[in-house]
Amino acid sequence: MKKLLVITLALSLMTGCASLNKQQKGTMAGAAGGALLGAAVSKGSVWGILAGAAVGGTAGNLIGKSMDKQAQDISQAIPTAEVNRVGEGINVTFDSSVAFKINSANLNADYKQDLADLAGVFKSYPDTNILIEGHTDDSGAAEYNMSLSQKRAQAVSNYLVSQGVSSSRLTVKWYGETQPKYPNDDENRAKNRRVELGIYANDEMKSNAQAGKL
User: Is the pLDDT at 206 greater than 80, yes or no?
Assistant: First the structure.
């Protein structure tokens, strides 16, 4: 029922946008598409927070423009990460096998430089908040996977803080194997071993956007 409501809302938004300009249509389409994808594919709270953080209207359009630029900067900082614009926010996903050794929460030395570069991007956009989520596949014991996902998400958070990102901007969550993004089969299982980030506007950014000062 919830998925049906999301789809109905998205369709009604799309059919009512004839009078909007190209940028506004793109913002609305991105928000609707993100909501649909989040409802249909991902069970992670990243999607829920990005959807819930949207303000819409002209302010949302301004936030979206800022997020477009930040997403570009993140893609350049971490070329191995998957960076997607979702509504008025950004979803960043990186493969745990790139950042961590097997069954370890210690960051690989090479990946620390990528995170240092990412921290530089975050410091350039101080009006955004960052959610960090840890996920695993279903290999091994569920209790162990839950603990490992927590340690890995916390390791990313700690390293960003060590590089100058304010801890007040960061929220850490972990889900072990409980929120697969893909089927846990031989072809896709590795994709579920991931750390996801959600970047969204803080209250100051929203206020500036609503005042037309962004």
Answer: yes
